[in-house]
Backbone:
């Protein structure tokens, strides 16, 4: 079963370089990377609005959600914007290869920490030597692809 | 000279911090999904708040939200599918996190990202400069897959 989930992850990742190429082109056309991001997010919102209405038949959300949940559950979208905008701003200053490598290192470090400590309600999965070796293989692989 | 080195260090730390934000976003959205009982509604709320923030930042930085109407009439249709593609990414991450854990989710998504990036480079799709696959790049992908297997098995 885990095999199918991994394939799902591969597919989810495969849309990113396509999206980046498309949004870069959109940014040139509208002459602003920020406006391109805003347009991209706005269209994504419209698609999700339609999908939610079709599949869930409602957009309703119990008022209790606001009072019983921690405040940070509403910050996911803004975090996504921070990530996206930082990438746009750093790319001309660090170059494509270094930008990718440094943000990936940040991703790996944080993902290990989340699994290790079970933050945000994720189940705990402690780091060990083989997992650490796996992370190093990933980083080495990314370095090879970026370098050659 | 020394000043520019300090600036580069600052940008590197910024990049590291930006990368750290990404798995946090997935985890936060995963928790939102539990609160609203729907992965789609969680994605929608995430995109909607992100859109609001981007409209505000665009107004502050560019002082406009308008663009030439010619962009709509003269551009290929796929110029508009970037956001909908992002929907696949965010929703899949929300669905996969509880099934795979943060590490394996990040790692499998990255592997897909690199694979397609190699293919886009190899064929020069979307007007990207041609960059053929070579032995080192293949070794890179093999190492990434090995990494996934190691993390998954232990």
Residues:
């Amino acid at each position: 079963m885990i095999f199918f989930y991994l394939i799902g992850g591969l597919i989810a990742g495969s849309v990113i370089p396509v999206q980046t190429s498309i949004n870069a082109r959109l940014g040139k056309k509208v002459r602003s990377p920020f406006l391109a991001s805003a347009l991209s997010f706005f269209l994504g919102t419209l698609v999700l609005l339609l999908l939610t209405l079709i599949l869930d038949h409602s957009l309703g959300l119990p008022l209790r959600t606001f009072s019983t949940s921690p405040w940070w559950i509403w910050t996911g979208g803004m975090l996504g914007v921070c990530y996206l905008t930082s990438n746009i701003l750093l790319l001309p200053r660090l170059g494509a290869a270094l930008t990718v490598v440094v943000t990936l290192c940040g991703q790996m470090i944080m993902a290990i920490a989340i699994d290790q400590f079970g933050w945000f309600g994720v189940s705990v999965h402690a780091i060990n030597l083989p997992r650490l070796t796996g992370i190093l293989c990933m980083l080495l692989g990314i370095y090879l692809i970026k370098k050659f | 000279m020394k000043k520019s080195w300090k600036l580069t260090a600052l940008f590197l730390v910024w990049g590291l911090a930006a990368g750290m934000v990404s798995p946090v976003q997935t985890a936060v959205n995963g928790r939102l999904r539990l609160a609203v009982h729907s992965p789609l509604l969680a994605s929608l709320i995430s995109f909607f708040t992100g859109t609001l923030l981007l409209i505000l930042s665009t107004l502050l930085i560019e002082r406009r939200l308008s663009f030439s109407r010619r962009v709509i009439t003269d551009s290929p249709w796929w110029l508009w599918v970037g956001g909908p593609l992002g929907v696949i990414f965010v929703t899949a991450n929300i669905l996969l996190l509880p099934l795979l854990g943060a590490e394996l989710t990040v790692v499998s998504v990255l592997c897909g990202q690199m694979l397609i990036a190699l293919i886009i480079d190899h064929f020069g799709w979307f007007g990207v400069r041609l960059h053929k696959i070579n032995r080192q790049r293949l070794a890179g992908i093999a190492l990434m897959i090995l990494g996934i297997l190691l993390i998954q098995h232990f």
About this structure: Chain A has two domains: 1-60, 70-148. Residues 63 and 69 of chain A are 11 Å apart (CA to CA).
